Amino acid sequence: DIRLRNKHGDTRPFRISITGDNTLRTALEGTVYETVDVPANEQLLQRVYVIAPPGSEAATTERTDIRFWVEDLVSGERVHNDSLFNGRVSQ
Fold it and tell me: What is the H or E stretch that residue 51 is in?
């Protein structure tokens, strides 16, 4: 889950994305889009799924470094947090 805080007096759209492995993609719970609106002066706890295609390197590697990006689409302000994607290693 990613906690989004909107400290502004108007509703703001936030885009959530990742970088690291080009085959990985994100899916946000509750929407088919890569953006969510956060009401004025509130916070939103957004569940984010990271998905790897079957058989891809990220899916078959034990760990892949990724970086989550959150962008305020009104101001253009961006922040990031580094994380790991855990794939499955065949035995």
Answer: strand 48-51
Q: Which two tokens stand for residue 26?
A: 């994100």
Q: Left if phi > 0, otherwise alpha if psi is -120 to 50, otherwise beta: which for 55?
A: left
Model's pTM, two decimal places?
Answer: 0.87
pLDDT tens per residue, range 13-35: 999 999 999 999 999 999 999 99
pLDDT tens, residue by residue, 53-70: 999 999 999 999 999 999
Q: How far apart are CA 40 and CA 6, in angstroms?
A: 6
Other beta carbons within 10 angstroms of residue 15's beta carbon come to 15
